[in-house]
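Notes from the 1:1 (GR / supervisor)

We went over the backlog. Supervisor wanted to see one worked example end to end before approving the batch request, so GR pasted a single chain during the call. The sequence is below; no edits were made to it. Supervisor asked that the structure be written out right there so they could see what the output format looks like.
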Amino acid sequence: MNNLINRAIIPVINDKGASSLRITNLIYIKEFIERISSNSYIKTEELNRLEAQYGVTPDIISWGDYFQAEIATSMQIKSDEEFMKAVETVKFDMISSYLIFKDKGSEFFEWVENSFGNLAVDDLCNLSSEDQEIVHLKILMDYYQEIGITDRFTESELSWHSSFKEAMAI
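Structure output shown during the call:
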């Protein structure tokens, strides 16, 4: 059975409590990521090995689990506004990742990888805006490849993404 809330974050929720807004959005982000991902966070063979070795499987086994836990823990003491911004950033980046990389050939992927490799990313704060864009492209490319993002977005998610992009352009 697929749990709406991963058991790994139950202590986080119990520690400080969580509003219905947060719970709803944690459930949403898990469902969203699981719907659009085609790759496993942990391969079946690795899960079987871990269960054989330790008698249990890890709590975080899907990309949806990973993002739900990451947002819940990193945003635990942040305001609801910051929490919502984190959820929306993940959603925006996943859709953007798909739209940017879906039709690109290997040359583009190589260009992103090489451009990123040529950066000195020790001090991200002092990178030029162009170099920051390369870093962001690399992150989006990694999402696209590692998660295996597919076009399973709802119409309302794509509409939200378009309206968000238009608002950013203004």
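Supervisor's comment: Residues 13 and 150 are 30 Å apart (CA to CA).
Batch request approved.
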